[in-house]
Structures are given as C-alpha cells and as structure tokens.
Amino acid sequence: MRCRKAWKEQAMAVHIRTSRVRTGADALIGRMATVVLCALISLTAATGIARAEQARVAIAANFIGPAKALIDAFARKTGDVVTPSFGASGQFLIQIEQGAPFDAFLSADDARPATLMREGFAAPGSAFTYAIGRLALWSGSAAFPAKEETLRKGGFTRLAVGNPRTAPYGAAALATLRSLGLYDALQPRLVTGVDIAQAFQFVQTGNAELGFVALSQLHDRPPGTVWIVPASLYPPIRQDGVLLKRGEGNRAARGFMNFLQTPEAKAIIAAYGYAPV
Amino acid sequence: MTSQPLLSDPHGAVQALRLTCALAATTTDVAMLLGAPLAWWLARGTDWRRDVVGSILTLPLVLPPTVLGFYLLLALGPSGVGGALSRFTGRPTLAFTFTGLVIGSVIAALPYVVQSARAAFETVGRAPVEIAYTLRASPLRAFWTVAVPLAAPGLLAAAVLAFAHTMGEFGLVLMIGGDIPGRTRVLAMALYDDVEAGEWREAHLIAGGMVGFAFVVILIMTLAQKRLARRKP
User: Fold this and answer.
1) What is the pLDDT of residues B76-101, one digit of tens each?
2) What distance in Å separates the CA atoms of residue B47 and residue A125, rounded to the nearest whole number?
3) For labelling, which of A59, B36, B48, B130 has a CA lying 20 to 30 Å from the CA of B199?
4) For residue A266, pLDDT beyond 80
C-alpha cells in the first residue's frame, strides 16, 4: 500500500515536470514533425512512380512450387510483381469473404471459386481451370514404402493428411481411403495439417511415416518413396482460379491470370506433375 | 483419454473442452513442480548463474510460439530426444501425442510460473527461512513449512496463470499437435478449424465460452488479490 502511494507521488511529479517543459519543446517538435512528414511524402511519391504494378494473389498450398516459378517468369516478362500468400483453400475462401486484400485466388478446387462467383466476390466470367491436381502417397520411412499394400498392411503409427474440411487434397486423401475401404481402419492414425504444406512437413520431419500430399510438392525429389494415387480412387481435383472484384482494375492481377493460360505457363505447371487441363 | 461418442457433440466441442482442461491441469501440475523450486533458487541470490538461468527461463515469453513449435517438432521427432524416449513405447515420435503437448505447454508456461513464484519468494525474504534454520529446520522442511505457506498467494497466482495460459495455447498446438480429436485437438484448435470451415455457430460457442472463462479467471484473481492484500498488516 505504502509502495503504491509513493509510486503515485512520483508519477505526479513527473507529470508536472513534463507539462512545464512542453511549451518550450512544442515548437521544435512541430518543426521536426513537418520535416519528417515532407521526407516521407517525397519518399513514397518517388517509389510510387518507379514501382511496377503489384498484385496480391491467394494461392492454395499445393501450388507453392509452380507458383514461384510462374511468378518469376511473369515478372521477367512484364516487370509486374505478384505477391503470393499460401494456405488452405477453405481458409482463403473465408478470408476473401471477410474482405481480405487479394486481387486473385488460385484455389485447389472448383467449388470455392464457384462460391465466390455466386456471392459476388469474383469478377464475372473470370473463372478457369489452371491445373488438375494429382494426389500422391509419400513415405519418408524405409520400413513403410509408399504403396497401396503398405496402407492395407498397416503397422505404421501416423498417416498425415491435409485438413479435409479446408484443404481439397485432404478431402481427396479421405476419398481415396474410403475407395480402398480403409478409412475406418486408418482413421485413428490420421494426423491433420492445416493445409497440404503442413501434411508434407509432418512427413519431412519424420513425425509421420506416411502422408498424402500433392504430387507437385515432390517435384524436388525429396528422399523416400512415392505412390501416385490412381485418379479413379478420388474425384478429380480441378483447380480453378478467379480474378477477384478488387483485382479487376489491377493490371498485374489480370495479366497474371491471362499468363496462366498461355502455353509457357502450362508447360511449367505440367513440369510440376499436374495433369493437363 | 477416453473418446467415446458424446451426446449432442457433433463437432467435438465438449471433447475439446475436456481435453483442454486435462492439458491445462497436467501442465499446471508439472510447471509448478518444476517452476516453484527453480523460482526458490532464483530468489535466493543474485550471482550470474541465476541471471543466465532466469534469462533462459524467460525466453518462451518473448519468442513467438512458432519458434518453440519448430524446435519441438524436431526435438520430439524420430531424430530428436522425444523420438528416442518414445521408442520405448514403440512409437517413433512424441509429436501428435498428449505427452508432446504437455512438454510444449510446460515450457511455454514456465516463465509465468517462475516469474510469479520468484516475486512471491522475494517478498517473503530471507529472514523467516533463516529463523527456521536457527531452529534446526532442514532446507527442505524450511521450504515446505515456511517459504511455501508465506508465498502462497503468489504461488496460487502462478498456478492460475499457468492454467489460463495453457487454456489459450494455440501456435504451439498448431505446429506439433496434428489436430487429432480427443488427443491433441484443444479448444483453440477446434475454434480455428470451425472458423476455417465456415462453421460460425460452433465458432461463436467456443470463442464466447473462452472469453467468459478468461474474464472469470481474471476477475477471481483480482478479487483474491484484493482480499489477500487487505488481510496483510
């Protein structure tokens, strides 16, 4: 109690001292603020003129590899900058509905772009399929090679998948397990990443022996074995992109979406293991 | 952990609540058992070793949970300490397990425990314990029968802080949990899933409940401290 009183007195003293000084310092601070403000304004003006147009694009996590290559190729060609954000498609749907500042959206499915179109967040007629995804089973453990037999035999402790509620590749993984009739048996061993990138990382760090990932994530040939899941076992992963309403006037956003449909871009996408559109 | 289906719990919110309480209680117990003696040791001197240990223990307070999550993911995994330990139970990793979460949240909660408990022990001072020594009490006995009762309010605050902090743990769980219902899907994680999936109703239920819980905890702490302060001469 006594301590608190002393503290209060000290605070009062400081307050009195500062208010006395303030009148004298006010003019100086005011002048300094003006100088700083002017410098800031001229700085932003200068960079504003020099800077190429910039677009923010929300991109499904399975597309990280090709997206980086595509953005580089696009920048070399046009000088425009595309800033990507990577995450689960479901996550981006909610964020865009809540006004996230994205100019375009590359989803890992066709349902979420359709939803955005219906709700009026996307530019009409801008939806197109940029890739058809392929699901792969990846094993980092020599004891459990990636193949259908291993899934049937069991014995491993953890199987990583993307969150089926938000990540289309996670949903495709569960569809595959259901087609194989293994869902009930393997369900207790599933570990769920927030997106397909986290599912990949769970296998990469060895915390899960096996994981369902996008084939594109294995482009750099990480150690381990890979089983490309037959397309008959899960509904096709049609990956659609849309230009969003706030990107309609953005040259970089429109340009990038058009670029994705050129043969040059399609070759890059195919090189990462996507099926031709 | 039992995981039998519960009535009217379609998204597992009740299951997540039980799991979160279990995690918070276990974490509080372990963090107090480790943290109180450490705080006692830290409070009884000012040499450089204590400064170093004190600084290390404070690290989780200023680091983003993702830093802790990243190191833990490697440490708990097959090539880390956790993997070596869990091999005794036939599992290759401690990640994605309740034990793994407890280890993580104890590390995250320790700074809160140590700081509160250390302040409490420092307030008690050396005199009462030294008097106990002159009456031929052993160090352990002096700690348990003199220092701990005198520092009780501060220790209680430490425990409440550890519990409340663990209830709100998220970044760490996101990185080492694997979102397994009944084992690692705590409330904050269930809320994240619901928001991402657009399940607003369920999300509101969890988020509102957590706001209410946090408010009650803070209010009780404030009232308790007021009462304790009034009781003191």
Assistant:
1) 988 888 888 887 877 778 889 999 99
2) 71
3) A59
4) yes
